[in-house]
């Protein structure tokens, strides 16, 4: 019965929205697109079918009905417009997205760590020195992300490609298995700490998240304000330190692991390390390849796309025998996440393409005029509207590109507003807002797809931690930014 309701409700939401009158100022085809998009989001929340199936279904529906859901009459009237060809091009656009391929590469990295047992070796080292207490493992994960963040503008590469393959090897050492009640022993806790930590560090440094750089350019072009790396870092520093220091402990209280302490585990880890012996040839090669990818992600982003760097390492692993082709084709979680995320990116980009996001920004300007305190209200709206967007890429193309200019325009029209403070509040929220959904930032699908974070838990914790982050940004971050800006 519950499954039938979960299957029926997304369809009902879509049909109800389709039957409602199109809001003033919005084209009918844009409203119809939003109706299908809203149904898909409800489907992802309730998950009556795998997320990839929900996303693919929505894309197919919109493609089949593209004449009424995707393209304006003016576009269709163009002399060189080919509706079937343009519809198909839109439908598969997400599969050419760089973040999608970077996530896929991260899964392959994890396969390399598992097959060569290098991930097990690293995990055993962590357990040997920090495994006596689960809480100290949480802090180790958070600080590892912090060390990489200033130099890695892709949090997918940083967290999904570098940290996740190591972290995924830790839970089995404690008998904690994915998609199993034992996941709560320790795996769920560690995965949640990891994704939350990368959201915090993504806000802490200008260079820790690609949309940060885009936001910086928009702020400079639209309102003439220049924000330096140092200014950004100083603006978020107190809040960033507070969040990183409290995150593992807060998750420990709100999402407690079943295993709190085990004095025997470190001794067992030491004996297991002795059994592994010296590094094997494949482990050494994997280490070299991973370091190569990390160097490309940190220092060579101007010359090589992070996704290409990831695929290059996958090819090197195949050529050197670290992975076999069957390891690629048989990796069901990787392909499932690939399809799921690609369809989400397509849908989110379409929401912007049809003009829905631009209309939403204009509507917000009308509704919020005269409301106070306007700064907090605008930041709240900017933050919560991230529920409509999937991943860093959709965040870049739609949320940052469409909504940030609209919100900046509203702020600039308010007499007496401190625009530097307002801009810093908006841009430093870009990372932390990624925690609110399982598709909110690049690495989210990787941790969500790990099997340790059930859908209900992810949405519940995302709401709790997202609310905490937003409140602290306004209560602690705002006064500090006013003081230093």
Fold blueprint:
Elements: H1 2-19, H2 28-46, H3 51-64, H4 66-69, H5 73-77, H6 83-91, H7 98-116, H8 118-130, H9 134-148, H10 155-167, H11 187-204, H12 210-223, H13 229-254, H14 264-276, H15 281-299, H16 306-320, H17 325-329, H18 332-353, H19 356-368, H20 374-384, H21 391-412, H22 419-427, H23 429-432, H24 444-448, H25 455-484
Quick tags:
mainly alpha; about 75% helix; about 0% strand
What Rg, in angstroms, do the CA atoms define?
23 Å
| Euclidean distance between termini CA atoms | 56 Å
Mean pLDDT score: 84
The percent of residues in helical segments reads over 70%
Q: What is the makeup of the main sheet?
A: none
Please give the count of helices. 25
Number of strands: 0
Q: Secondary-structure element sequence? A: HHHHHHHHHHHHHHHHHHHHHHHHH
> What amount of the residues lies in strands?
under 5%
Q: Name the overall outline.
A: globular
Q: Strand pairing plus helix content: what structural class?
A: mainly alpha
The parts where pLDDT drops under 50 for at least 5 residues are 391-398
């Amino acid at each position: 019965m519950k499954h039938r309701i979960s299957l029926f409700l997304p369809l009902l939401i879509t049909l109800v929205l389709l039957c409602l009158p199109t809001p003033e100022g919005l084209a009918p085809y844009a409203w119809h697109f939003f109706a299908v998009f809203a149904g898909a989001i409800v489907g992802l929340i309730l998950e009556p079918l795998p997320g990839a199936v929900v996303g693919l279904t929505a894309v197919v529906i919109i493609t089949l009905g593209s004449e009424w859901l995707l393209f304006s009459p003016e576009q269709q009237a163009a002399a060189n417009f080919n509706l079937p060809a343009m519809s198909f091009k839109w439908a598969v656009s997400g599969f050419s997205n760089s973040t999608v391929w970077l996530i896929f590469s991260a899964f392959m990295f994890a396969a390399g760590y598992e097959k060569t047992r290098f991930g097990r070796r690293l995990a055993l080292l962590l357990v040997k020195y920090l495994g006596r207490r689960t809480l100290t493992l949480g802090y180790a994960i958070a600080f590892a992300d912090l060390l990489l963040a200033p130099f890695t503008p892709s949090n997918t590469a940083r967290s999904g490609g570098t940290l996740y393959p190591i972290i995924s090897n830790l839970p089995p050492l404690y008998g904690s298995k994915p998609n199993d009640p034992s996941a709560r022993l320790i795996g769920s806790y560690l995965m949640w700490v990891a994704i939350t930590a990368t959201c915090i560090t993504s806000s802490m440094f200008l260079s820790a998240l690609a949309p940060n750089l885009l936001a910086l350019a928009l702020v400079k072009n639209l309102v003439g304000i220049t924000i330096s790396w140092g200014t950004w870092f100083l603006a978020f520093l107190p809040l960033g330190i507070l969040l990183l220091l409290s995150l593992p402990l807060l998750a420990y209280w709100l999402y407690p692991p079943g295993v709190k302490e085990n004095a025997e585990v470190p001794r067992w880890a030491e004996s297991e390390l002795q059994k592994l012996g010296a590094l094997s040839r494949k482990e050494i090669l994997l280490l070299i390849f991973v370091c190569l990818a990390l160097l490309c992600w940190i220092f060579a982003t101007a010359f090589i796309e992070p996704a290409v760097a990831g695929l290059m390492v996958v090819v090197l692993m195949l050529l050197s025998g670290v992975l076999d082709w069957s390891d690629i084709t048989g990796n069901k979680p990787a392909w499932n996440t690939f399809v799921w995320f690609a369809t989400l990116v397509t849908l989110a980009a379409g929401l912007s393409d049809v003009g829905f996001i631009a209309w939403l920004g204009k509507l917000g300007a009308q509704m919020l005029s005269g409301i106070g305190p306007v700064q907090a209200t605008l930041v709240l709206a900017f933050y919560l509207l991230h529920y409509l967007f999937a991943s860093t890429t959709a965040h870049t193309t739609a949320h940052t590109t469409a909504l940030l200019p609209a919100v900046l325009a509203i702020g600039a029209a308010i007499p007496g507003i401190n625009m530097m403070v307002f801009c810093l509040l908006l841009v430093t929220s870009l990372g932390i807002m990624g925690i609110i959904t399982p598709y909110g930032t690049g690495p989210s699908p990787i941790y969500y797809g790990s099997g340790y974070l059930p859908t209900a838990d992810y949405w519940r914790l995302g709401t709790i931690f997202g609310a905490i982050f937003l409140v602290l940004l306004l209560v602690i971050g705002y006064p500090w930014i006013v003081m230093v800006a």
